[in-house]
């Protein structure tokens, strides 16, 4: 880490309190002049830092800039995190890095995506200032069929983290969407590369996009009836994105470490919002009406089609049929 980043770490760890120049220079083993120069660089980057003689430097508690340092102070696992202002898609970039050998536990976080991707080839709305977009690179030694657990455990991690930072209740729409009050607040896209001979995963990239606040002027027309955000307004969300990301990662890697026991599955089932509802099962171009019956320990969904046949499904997409609106969720 360079001096600027080390100082940011110290200031983030003592956010709202003064840290003396002498203390910083001792902790980082650099001159007070070097500290002063690095503080000026941080100020140029937009950090609101008060400098008071005999007291030192203080990062304003309202300074809400997402950074490795603002997230790491809440993290309990050792991960290789990078925060970038803008990227095409965190998942696309991380898959490229995975192919070049990037290690397990690499996390790429962006404030904006210019080509955010959802499931089934859909675009994922990813503007700056209203959401957080991140992808996690994993190298699990598991059969390809078990990759569903990466998505479902991520959904539980997101639901929990949302409830940690807000007063909203989060539910899960099988298989990969997190909902608040019947609207989507988060989408998860898991992509994997597997070894064709062993049928085991080479790597997986779990991409997570969470709406933090609705954009000024609201969500775009195509999603305005189906999208929501964790917070009602910008003021409520101050400093919360860093906590939210860290909590998602903390829960997710807790579950990951306990992969064999699948300790999160009961919670996944409990949080499901589709059981007993009329749904539409989307398989490629085919759409079939059905009733959602139950989710089992393998996170498969049992459905009954209108012709009476029942089936366990473990992939694909479902939408909930609304009684009062023509917009399916
Ligand atoms: C979906 O709702 O269909 C899944 C959306 C997944 C979006 C996230 S945002 C971070 C990562 N990068 C992407 O391009 N997609 C995922």
Q: What would you note in describing this structure?
A:
The protein has 329 residues and is an alpha+beta fold. It has nine helices and 14 strands. The strands form three sheets. It has a seven-stranded mixed sheet with strand order 3-4-5-9-8-7-6, sandwiched between helices. Strands 13-12-11-10-14 form a five-stranded antiparallel sheet, with no helix packed on it. A two-stranded antiparallel ribbon has the order 1-2. Strand 7 and strand 8 form a beta hairpin. Helix 2 crosses helix 3. It is elongated. The structure holds biotin (BTN). Residues 89-91, 113, 116-119, 122, 124, 133-135, 187-189, 207-209 line the site of biotin (BTN).
Which tags fit this structure?
5-stranded antiparallel β-sheet, 329 residues, alpha+beta, 7-stranded mixed β-sheet, disordered C terminus
Task: Set out the fold topology.
Elements: H1 3-13, H2 21-28, H3 32-44, E1 49-52, E2 56-59, H4 68-72, E3 80-87, H5 90-99, E4 106-113, E5 131-138, H6 148-165, E6 170-173, E7 177-180, E8 183-195, E9 200-211, H7 234-237, H8 240-257, H9 265-270, E10 278-283, E11 286-295, E12 301-305, E13 310-313, E14 317-320
Parallel strand pairs: 3-4
Antiparallel strand pairs: 1-2, 4-5, 5-9, 6-7, 7-8, 8-9, 10-11, 10-14, 11-12, 12-13
Helix pairs in contact: 1-3, 2-3, 6-8
The protein binds biotin.
Helix and strand pattern: HHHEEHEHEEHEEEEHHHEEEEE
Give the biggest beta sheet.
7 strands, mixed
**Unreliable parts:** 324-328
Termini separation comes to 45 Å
Shape: elongated
Helix content: 25-40%
Bound molecules: biotin
Structural class determined from secondary elements: alpha+beta
SS element count, helices: 9
- Indicate the proportion of strand residues: 25-35%
Q: Count the beta strands.
A: 14
Q: Radius of gyration from the CA trace?
A: 22 Å
Mean pLDDT: 94
Strands across the major sheet, in which order? 3-4-5-9-8-7-6
């Amino acid at each position: 880490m360079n001096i600027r980043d080390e100082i940011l770490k110290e200031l983030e760890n003592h956010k709202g309190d003064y840290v003396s120049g002498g203390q910083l220079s001792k902790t980082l083993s650099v001159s007070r002049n070097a500290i002063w120069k690095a503080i000026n660089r941080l100020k140029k980057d937009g950090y609101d830092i008060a400098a008071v003689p005999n007291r030192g430097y203080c990062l304003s508690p309202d300074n809400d800039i997402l950074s490795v340092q603002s997230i790491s102070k809440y993290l309990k696992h050792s991960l290789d995190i990078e925060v970038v202002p803008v990227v095409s898609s965190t998942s696309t970039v991380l898959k490229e890095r995975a192919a070049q050998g990037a290690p397990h536990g690499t996390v790429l976080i962006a404030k904006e995506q210019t080509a955010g991707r959802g499931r089934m080839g859909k675009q994922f709305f990813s503007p700056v200032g209203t959401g957080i977009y991140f992808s996690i690179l994993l190298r699990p030694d598991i059969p390809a069929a078990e990759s569903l657990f990466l998505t479902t455990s991520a959904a539980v991690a997101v639901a929990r983290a949302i409830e940690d930072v807000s007063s909203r209740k989060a539910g899960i729409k099988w298989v990969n969407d997190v909902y608040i009050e019947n609207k989507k607040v988060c989408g998860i896209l898991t992509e994997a590369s597997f070894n064709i001979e062993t049928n085991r995963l080479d790597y997986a990239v779990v991409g997570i996009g969470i709406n933090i606040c609705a954009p000024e002027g609201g969500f775009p027309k195509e999603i305005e009836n189906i999208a929501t955000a964790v917070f009602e307004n910008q003021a409520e969300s101050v400093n919360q994105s860093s906590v939210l990301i860290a909590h998602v990662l903390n829960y997710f890697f807790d579950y990951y470490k306990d992969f064999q026991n699948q300790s999160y599955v009961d919670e996944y089932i409990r949080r499901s919002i589709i059981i007993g509802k009329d749904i539409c099962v989307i398989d490629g171009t085919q759409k079939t009406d059905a009733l959602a019956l139950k989710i089992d320990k393998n996170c498969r969904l049992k459905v009954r089609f209108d012709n009476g046949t029942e089936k366990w499904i473990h992939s694909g997409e479902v939408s909930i049929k609304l009684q009062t609106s023509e917009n399916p969720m």
